[in-house]
């Protein structure tokens, strides 16, 4: 009698990085329980994309949880603050940083993992090609795993909990290559901070720039749908 597949909760935003993480978890033999969070972000196109990605990559289930971070604001993604389009975030943490977002999302994933009896949580944080967010650093992931094992019944009485960040030290180009190797359809994903209702990207924000540069560096055609005809050409 074969062993049952291991369960994993995978945070899925609908962007390219989290789609690759779903594919990686699947390739490692996990039954993927995909989790998206509607936190008050500027648009819901990425959540539509998350649903499509979860279906395309064969997730066992896909759940969307609602958390109202717009009520506290403090970010260009959840407040009436313009999203920067000049490509220069400077040395400081950019205004697109959402206070405590990854902590909150991982906490929800942790709760669901306990309910499912899953010992593994996957997230798509990256410390190479990212925008300087403090909750994308390896120290954060390590600290949250310690917290998970201190603060839960599963951590104290069970087999322990592991937080996986498989993209942590990969460049965007590496992420593109890995996704293609694992059969990810990047055309289904939405990364733009201010995508329109149809999921078309602005081609100007930091997320669009990093995404386009990743495809360019990987030598792969960019499948992103842009709201403006010139698309990624203006990003370089």
Automatic annotation (TrEMBL):
Report the co-factor binding details.
Answer: Binds 1 zinc ion per subunit.
What EC number(s) does the entry state? 6.3.4.20
The record's SUPFAM superfamilies line, in alphabetical order, gives: Adenine nucleotide alpha hydrolases-like
**Which pathway does the database say it acts in?**
Purine metabolism; 7-cyano-7-deazaguanine biosynthesis
Binding annotation for ATP: 12-22
User: InterPro entries per the record?
Assistant: QueC, Rossmann-like_a/b/a_fold
Query: Which co-factor is required?
Result: Zn(2+)
Tell me what reaction this enzyme catalyses: 7-carboxy-7-carbaguanine + NH4(+) + 2 ATP = 7-cyano-7-carbaguanine + 2 AMP + 2 diphosphate + 2 H(+)
The UniProt keyword set, sorted, is:
ATP-binding, Ligase, Metal-binding, Nucleotide-binding, Queuosine biosynthesis, Zinc
**In which residues is Zn(2+) bound?**
192, 202, 205, 208
Keyword Nucleotide-binding among UniProt keywords? yes
The organism sits in which domain of life?
Answer: Bacteria
Instruction: Tell me, in a sentence or two, what this protein's role is.
Output: Catalyzes the ATP-dependent conversion of 7-carboxy-7-deazaguanine (CDG) to 7-cyano-7-deazaguanine (preQ(0)).
Q: Which PANTHER family match?
A: 7-CYANO-7-DEAZAGUANINE SYNTHASE
The entry's family comment says: Belongs to the QueC family.
**NCBIfam families linked to this entry:** 7-cyano-7-deazaguanine synthase QueC (TIGR00364)
What's the name of the protein? 7-cyano-7-deazaguanine synthase
Which species is this UniProt entry from?
Cognatilysobacter xinjiangensis
This protein's encoding gene: queC
